[in-house]
């Protein structure tokens, strides 16, 4: 070979036409064995066919008597090298194989584009490199068909680059939208949430998710990150202020509850059962209103508070048990008095009955209290005796009431007066006055009859 020979493109694997046949389906030929070299159709889906040059190198070039190798080109032919080492056919086959290597290189680029395994941008660069080198390539083959195939690969690569760009932009927009959503959630938590633990856990989860999102442009990413960081800082400040305030409240609650414990312990020795029990109820209300102290202190204060209460109510219970025993004995004594009281008979002597009842009432008061559940029963029986005696006294009073007798005499006198006036008016011939006097006499006569009946039925 001479210096005019050119090596295959750097960085691209060389292979024979037979090797390519196992990786890429060779482009079809027409019936005449010619390549479909009418030019690349970037918009089409079928790549232009490129014949295998090594099958018949003489179709695409020649070797002259001086050993110079030529390839058919547009408008004629051009020299691609020299072959002096052997038969001319061997030289022509050598340059045809080099063409097939370039053909294989192009088909490999195309295969990678179709499979999506390669980088479209790198494939585009490689295809352009092949196209640029094809002008002076030291090869023998269908240069027009290979050029059309390279143009097809370039067009496909450009489409793939554009598609990848659109996909990257879509992915970038989606990633930015995801981060925007996370930022908005973080800002909502920072400004509104009072569920401190849950919100803090969620902010940490948002940060972990944030780290997995890629592809956002630097400017947008920095803006969103600043908002997210600001939201986290705001949440941490609110949470810190809340717990600082909570600590102050708990310290205040501890002080207040200690005061309540002190008062409860002082009251635990009181014998003023009713007032003290009422105060303990008030202390319980105040205890609940005081709020929670730090847990360890709160538990200890509560135990001390309950111990003071228990001490008082245990003492009260013992005192009530003793009192109940005394009240039970009082009930028996009052039952004995009631037996005497219920035997009083006012009809046998009203003054004696009143005197006996008065003495029983004095003894009743001296006995003292009885169990609460017996009060109504015993008081009711005594009240019945009192009403019996009082009823007898009232009946006697009504029978001897001087006012009732005087009222009867007064009514009778008025009747007589109006009857006399009526008689006098008739004698004088004054019929109208006579009728008026008779009407008034009739009215007073009715009242007189009612008064006389009341006196008679006493």
Task: Give the overall shape, derived from the CA principal axes.
Answer: elongated
How many domains? 5
Main sheet strand line-up: 1-2-3
Helix content class? over 70%
What is the terminal-to-terminal distance? 166 Å
| Biggest pleated-sheet summary | 3 strands, antiparallel
Q: Percent of residues in beta strands?
A: under 5%
Low-confidence stretches: 1-43
Continuous helix count: 12
Mean pLDDT: 84
> How much is the radius of gyration in Å?
64 Å
Q: What is the H/E order?
A: HEEEHHHHHHHHHHH
Q: Helices and strands: which structural class? A: mainly alpha
Tally the beta strands. 3
Biased composition (Basic and acidic residues): 56-65
Keywords: Coiled coil
InterPro entries: DUF349
Protein name: DNA repair ATPase
In short:
This protein has 458 residues and is mainly α. Helices cover 72% and strands 3% of the residues. It has five domains: 17-166, no CATH class; 171-248, no CATH class; 250-310, no CATH class; 324-398, no CATH class; 402-456.
Task: Describe the model.
- Residues 243-270, 375-454 form a coiled coil.
- Keywords: Coiled coil.
- It comes from Kutzneria kofuensis.
- InterPro entries: DUF349.
- This is DNA repair ATPase.
- It is a single chain.
- This protein is mainly alpha-helical and 458 residues long.
- The chain has 5 domains: 17-166, no CATH class; 171-248, no CATH class; 250-310, no CATH class; 324-398, no CATH class; 402-456.
- Helices cover 72% and strands 3% of the residues.
- The chain is built from 12 helices and 3 strands, in the order αβββααααααααααα.
- A 3-stranded antiparallel beta sheet has the order 1-2-3, with helices on one face.
- A hairpin with a 2-residue loop joins strand 2 and strand 3 (76-82).
- Helix 2 runs parallel beside helix 4, helix 6 packs antiparallel against helix 7 and helix 6 (218-267) runs parallel beside helix 8 (295-341).
- The longest helix has 50 residues, at 143-192.
- The protein is elongated and about 190 Å long.
């Amino acid at each position: 070979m001479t210096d005019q020979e050119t090596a295959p493109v750097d960085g691209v694997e060389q292979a024979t036409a037979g090797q390519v046949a196992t990786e890429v389906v060779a482009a079809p030929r027409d019936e005449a064995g010619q390549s479909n070299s009418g030019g690349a159709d970037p918009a089409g889906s079928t790549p232009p066919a490129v014949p295998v040059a090594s099958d018949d190198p003489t179709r695409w070039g020649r070797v002259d008597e001086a050993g110079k190798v030529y390839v058919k080109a547009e408008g004629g032919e051009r020299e691609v090298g020299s072959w002096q080492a052997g038969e001319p056919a061997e030289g022509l086959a050598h340059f045809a194989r080099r063409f097939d290597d370039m053909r294989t290189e192009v088909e490999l680029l195309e295969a990678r584009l179709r499979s999506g395994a390669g980088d479209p941008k790198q494939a585009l660069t490689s295809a352009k490199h092949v196209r640029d080198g094809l002008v002076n390539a030291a090869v023998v083959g269908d240069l027009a068909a290979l050029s059309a195939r390279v143009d097809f690969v370039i067009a496909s690569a450009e489409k793939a680059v554009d598609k990848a760009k659109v996909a990257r932009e879509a992915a970038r927009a989606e990633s930015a939208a995801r981060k925007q959503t996370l930022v908005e959630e973080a800002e909502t938590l920072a400004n509104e949430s009072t569920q401190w633990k849950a919100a803090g856990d969620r902010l940490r989860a948002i940060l972990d998710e944030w780290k997995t999102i890629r592809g956002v442009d630097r400017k947008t990413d920095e803006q969103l990150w600043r908002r997210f960081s600001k939201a986290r800082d705001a949440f941490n400040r609110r949470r810190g202020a809340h717990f600082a305030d909570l600590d102050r409240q708990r310290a205040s609650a501890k002080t207040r509850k200690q005061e309540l414990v002190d008062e409860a312990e002082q009251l635990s020795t009181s014998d003023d059962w009713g007032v003290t029990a009422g105060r303990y109820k008030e202390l319980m209300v105040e205890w609940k209103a005081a709020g929670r102290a730090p847990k360890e202190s709160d538990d200890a204060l509560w135990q001390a508070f309950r111990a003071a209460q228990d001490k008082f109510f245990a003492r009260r219970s013992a005192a009530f048990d003793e009192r109940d025993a005394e009240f039970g004995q009082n009930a028996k004594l009052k039952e004995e008095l009631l037996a005497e009281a219920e035997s009083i008979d006012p009809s046998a002597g009203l003054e004696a009955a009143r005197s006996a009842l008065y003495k029983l009432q004095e003894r009743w008061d001296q006995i003292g209290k009885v169990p609460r559940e017996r009060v109504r029963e015993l008081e009711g029986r005594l009240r019945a005796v009192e009403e019996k005696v009082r009823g007898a006294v009232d009946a006697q009073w009504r029978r001897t009431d001087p006012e009732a007798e005087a009222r009867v005499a007064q009514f009778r006198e008025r009747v007589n007066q109006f009857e006399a006036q009526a008689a006098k008016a008739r004698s004088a011939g004054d019929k109208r006055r006579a009728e008026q006097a008779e009407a008034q006499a009739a009215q007073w006569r009715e009242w007189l009859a009612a008064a006389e009946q009341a006196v008679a039925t006493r």
